[in-house]
Every structure is written in C-alpha cells, then in structure tokens.
Design a protein that fits this description.
This protein has 14 helices and eleven strands. The chain is α/β, with parallel strands linked by helices and about 350 residues long. The structure holds nicotinamide-adenine-dinucleotide (NAD), ligand LNCXM5UN and zinc ion (ZN). It comes from Actinoplanes aureus.
C-alpha cells in the first residue's frame, strides 16, 4: 500500500510513504539527463540501487561524510565542483539518499546550484521521513550555529520507503520519534496515545504503529508547510523544542543526535509553558514521560547554562535582542513566548539540569 500525502502551495508535491518505492523515482525526475546521488558511506549500496532505478543516462554518485559532518559548506562546495565537472544543467536533478543530515545537504546543494535545480529526498531515517525531507528547509551548519546557512527550496517529491528502516539503529529510530512526539504535542495528540499505549511497537520498523506514526507526523508537517512555507507565522510551531535543542547540539559540536537534543528541548519548552501559567501540569509532565518511554534523554548538564543562553540568541525565531520560544497554551495549542526574562529561562532550565 502506498500513501500519497500532498503538500500544496506554489510548488506542490507529494510525500510518498510505502515499501519498495524506487519505481516512483523516474516520474519525479522526468526530463533529467543527469542525476547526482548524495549519500553517506554506509548507504552506498542503497544509493546504487536508487541510481539504477533513476533510469537516466548519467548517474553521478557523490559520497559525503555521515551525519552532521556532511552538513558543511566545504562538503557542499565539493558537491558543486562535482556537479560542475559532470556538466549539470537546470533540467538535471540532485537526489539525497540518507537521513535528515544528508537530505538537508542535498537540498541546499540543489537550492544553490544554478540558483535552484530540482531535488528529491530519498529518506532513510525516521527523522528524515517525518520532518527533514518535507517542507523544503535545506541547510548546512557553520561555526556560529546550526542550520544558519540555507534556503527554502521545496523538493519535487519525497520518497519515504519504510523498508529502509530495517537497518536503522534503534537509537536513531527513537531519536526520530522525538520529532514525532513534537508533532503530537503541537497538533495531533493521537500520536501521543499511540506511543504511550505501546512504546516498543512504536519503535518496530516492521510494525503498523510506526507506519501510522510516520504518516500522522507527515500530515502535520505537510499541512503546516503548505500554509506557511517560509516560516512567516504558523511554521514556527515546528520549531517547538528547538531553541534549546539547537544550542545543545552546537555545544556538543554536533556529536549529539538531533532528536536527543530536541527531546531535552521539548521538556524545557514544556516547563516554560508551565512556569508562565500557560500549560497545565498534566500536559507538561507528559512530555517527560512519553519521551522517556522511548529511552530519550530529558536532562542535560547543569553547568552548560552559561553556554546555552548565548547560543540560543542566534535562533532564527529571535528578533533583534528578543528571544522567542514556541510554548503550549494546552495540548495541541502552540503559541509564542516573546522576550522571557533570563530568570524565567534559568528556572525552566533547572527542570532539565542534572
Ligand atoms: N530540514 C528540516 O526541516 C529538518 C527537520 C528535522 C531534522 N532536520 C535535520 O535532520 C538531521 C537529523 O536527521 P537524522 O536523525 O536522520 O540524521 P542523520 O542523517 O545524521 O542520520 C542519523 C544516522 O542514521 C544513519 N542512517 C540513516 N538512515 C539509515 C538507514 N536506513 N540504515 C542505517 N543507518 C542509517 C545515518 O548514516 C546517520 O549515522 C539534523 O541535521 C537535523 O537538523 C532537518
Ligand atoms: O520544518 C521546520 O520548520 C522545522 O523547524 C523542523 C525542525 O524539526 C528542523 O529541525 C528544522 O531543521 C529546524 O529549522 P531551523 O530553521 O530552526 O534551523
Ligand atoms: Zn528538528
């Protein structure tokens, strides 16, 4: 069974969820003579299969460093050199085969090449399928912070082949579920019920529960980015838990998994909601319990606070000196907290400090 979830707007496309989806690729790259396939070393065989499925005259495989090590301007520059050497034109297509880090890089390489060529994420991780591959946010990291250089560049289509999850380590399945939990709190509480009912099933790549979770979270994201591609309003809710999460990732020099940092960030954001009287205790406490049921971290170093506060100031939701956070006014009722004082932030941090 194949599920097609539409993303609407100026450049509509489908997010395709199912198994054995390589046959979907040719229609997404119609008219291309060349396809570049960016992939990390561990997914070389998968990338070769995707290259064959593309059915074009020239396939240019480009191996990139794994995970966040690939999300750099130097790696992007090497990819552009390879596109140049292969004579990539505006009708050619960049494909990213991998998790969210690889597809963020592939999308950015495509966004900047000739000022924008088509790209297709062939997503192989939970975080990639439910979040990174959908919505056209592409980016690399720089020394100043996470995802600070990038572009909004929607893909031609998204392939979420659940077969890929068979080889994804359990730790990465759980990390991806942090983004699914985020979707549960900001928009679709049924997600939380499904995980709470049976966390082990939620993590089983062959089970129906994980598929339902993937589809539900994709629908949440597809709706939001259809309404607000460029994050001028509604899209900010997808950043729930990310203001602190990105600061933790930067402090850890991107050795922490994104989903782990976001898990801590979600508990912190829930605490901000509670302390400002906007979020009830039951919903605030539910953040920690559902995330911990998946084995996700909900605490971080007490001493780190003095590093994290300045790091949060480069968050893209900030406006001049005003920090802005996504908080909840209740379950599935996201809102913005603008300009909280430092004392409030520190008290919220105490809830995750160990
Ligand atoms: N653009 C967006 O809107 C958006 C949304 C969410 C996350 N992100 C970004 O996505 C990244 C997190 O995504 P991620 O967790 O997928 O990261 P990732 O790409 O680093 O993948 C995690 C690990 O899983 C491995 N992996 C991926 N698929 C595999 C498979 N099928 N089998 C075996 N190993 C596999 C990768 O090689 C890597 O080691 C972060 O960079 C984050 O900033 C972007
Ligand atoms: O799609 C969005 O919008 C998000 O915020 C989704 C996040 O899960 C994702 O990590 C995104 O890359 C964060 O974007 P940023 O603009 O805060 O860098
Ligand atoms: Zn994220």
């Amino acid at each position: 069974m194949v599920t097609r979830i539409p993303v609407t707007g100026d450049r509509p496309y489908d997010v395709i969820v199912g198994r054995g989806l390589d046959g979907e690729l040719p229609s997404l790259i119609e008219g291309a003579a060349r396809v570049a396939i960016l992939h990390p070393p561990t997914l070389r065989e998968r990338a070769e299969a995707v290259g064959k499925a593309a059915g074009v005259a020239t396939v240019v495989p480009i191996e990139v460093p794994d995970a966040e090590a690939g999300k750099s301007i130097e790696v992007a520059a090497r990819c552009w050199d390879e596109l140049g050497a292969a004579g990539f034109t505006r009708t050619d297509v960049v494909v990213g085969v991998g998790g969210g880090a690889t597809t963020d890089l592939a999308g950015y390489v495509a966004a900047a090449w000739l000022r924008g060529v088509r790209w297709v994420p062939v997503s192989t991780s939970v975080a990639g399928m439910v979040d990174a591959a959908v919505g056209g946010k592409t980016a690399v990291n720089i020394a100043a912070g996470k995802n600070l250089v990038g572009a909004f560049h929607p893909p031609a289509g998204v392939l979420c082949d659940l077969d890929a999850l068979d080889t994804l380590p359990a730790e990465d399945i759980a990390a991806g579920l942090a983004e699914v939990v985020k979707g549960g709190f900001i928009a679709d509480p049924r997600i939380l019920e499904l995980i709470e009912a049976d966390p082990a099933s939620a993590m089983n790549p062959r089970g129906d529960v994980l598929r339902e979770l993937v589809e539900r979270k994709v629908r949440v994201k597809a709706h939001v980015v259809s309404v607000d591609l460029k994050e001028s309003g509604l899209r900010e809710i997808l950043n729930y838990g990310h203001t602190l999460g990105h600061a933790i990732e930067r402090r850890e020099k991107y050795t922490w998994k994104h989903g782990h940092a976001i898990s801590v960030g979600l508990v912190f954001a829930a605490e901000l909601g509670r302390l400002t009287g906007r979020l009830d205790d039951v919903t605030a406490d539910r953040h920690r319990s559902v995330l911990e049921s998946l084995g996700l971290p909900t605490a971080y170093s007490k001493e780190a606070w003095t590093d994290l506060l300045p790091a949060m100031r480069v968050d893209k939701k900030a406006r001049a000196a005003t920090l802005r956070f996504v908080v909840l006014d209740g379950l599935a009722k996201p809102g913005i907290l603008a300009g909280p004082d430092e004392d409030l932030l520190e008290r919220a941090y105490a809830a995750v400090a160990r």
